[in-house]
Design a protein that fits this description.
Residues 63-199 form the Reverse transcriptase Ty1/copia-type domain. There is one protein chain. The chain is α+β, with helices and mostly antiparallel strands. The protein folds into two domains: 13-161, no CATH class; 175-318, no CATH class. The protein contains seven helices and 15 strands. The strands form four sheets. A six-stranded antiparallel beta sheet has the order 4-5-6-7-1-8, with helices on both faces. It has a four-stranded antiparallel beta sheet with strand order 9-10-11-12, with helices on one face. The chain has a three-stranded antiparallel beta sheet with strand order 13-14-15. It starts with 21 loop residues before the first helix and ends with a strand.
Length: 319
């Protein structure tokens, strides 16, 4: 299979990769009850027409008499900077022909309303989640997409972008159980005793504290993986904000704090979010600040939580 080497595009406006935001994903989880997953499969980037003239050199193993010749692309090639934009343009045209429209706030979210029936199509690169109150419409849409893109139907949504989905009568539970367990195994924490609080309240971490770590990349990798868990673990959002401050000036005390957090996660690695199917669509937002509590720079740490009805859809902690 031919693929592009990944050189920079000459036109930055052609670089576009459609990615669904966490907030939109959790919002449609709250509003809908039946979810179907799919993947665009073989047509993800290889059958879409390309705009303009794009040339590339012949593969090294292909013998060509005239070394001055180049290949001209008629369709998008896997790895090409234009590919994601062309794929989205074709998907957008197909969905709009079915009466869907994209959200002006998130181009990766499409919606359609027919009388009292609502439907959503969420797109993340070449992964698609379809949900609608009308089950027949879901089947018709999947058949239409398959005729246009040859999608791989994955059935009822159980796993999406590292998030595990457990369907209940009154809602869904979203967790990262497997990711958390794999993390504990990779860092050999399965035999550790669990803790009931994520950070030691008696320890005040500062920059350049204690003996410097010989391999700071170890700390950075671990913090990066833990930060991914905040997609479903609100309880560690503040702690990850705190530990992420010490990526450069870190010592043994900071590493001990990270392993303290791992022992907290070991207490219940299955903990996740419950997204209710409650009909209440009231948006509530809460925020707070600790007012210049940072010992190094006297900056404030802000935090907010947004609820759709009783379901959390957005949260963040930031200095």
């Amino acid at each position: 299979m031919l693929s592009n080497k990944g050189e920079e595009s000459s036109d930055p406006n052609e670089d576009q990769n459609v990615s669904l935001s966490k907030e939109q994903y959790e919002q449609i989880m709250s509003l809908q009850q039946d979810f179907q997953a799919g993947n665009e499969g073989e047509s993800a980037s290889s059958i879409n027409p390309i705009n303009g003239v794009v040339n590339f050199a012949f593969p090294q193993d292909l013998a060509v008499e005239n070394s001055g010749l180049v290949c001209k692309l008629n369709k998008s090639l896997y790895g090409l900077k234009h590919a994601s934009r062309q794929r989205y343009a074709k998907l957008n045209k197909a969905l709009c022909s079915r009466g869907y429209a994209y959200s002006i706030y998130d181009y990766s979210l499409f919606y359609k309303k027919i009388e009292t029936s609502f439907g959503y199509v969420a797109v993340y690169v070449d992964d698609i989640v379809v949900t609608r109150t009308d089950t027949m419409e879901i089947e018709e849409l999947k058949a239409f997409l398959n005729s246009s893109f040859k999608i791989k139907d994955l059935g009822r949504l159980h796993y999406f972008l590292g998030l595990e989905v457990l369907n209940k009568d009154d809602g869904v539970i979203i967790s990262q159980r497997k990711f958390a367990l794999d993390l504990l195994k990779d860092y050999q924490c399965m035999d550790y005793s669990s803790l009931t609080y994520p950070l030691d309240p008696t320890v005040k971490l500062k920059a350049k504290e204690g003996e410097a770590l010989k391999e700071p990349i170890y700390y950075r990798n671990l913090v990066g993986k833990l930060n991914f868990l905040t997609n479903t673990r609100l309880d560690i959002a503040y702690n990850m904000q705190h530990l992420s401050q010490f990526m450069d000036d870190l010592g043994e005390a900071h590493l001990r704090a990270v392993f303290h957090l791992l022992r907290y996660l070991k207490g219940d690695p299955t903990l996740g979010l419950f997204i209710s199917h409650d009909t209440d669509c009231t948006i509530k937002a809460n925020c707070d600040s600790d007012w210049a509590a940072c010992p190094d720079f006297r900056k404030s740490v802000n935090g907010y939580l947004v609820l759709l009805g009783t379901s959390p859809i957005s949260w963040k902690s930031k200095k």
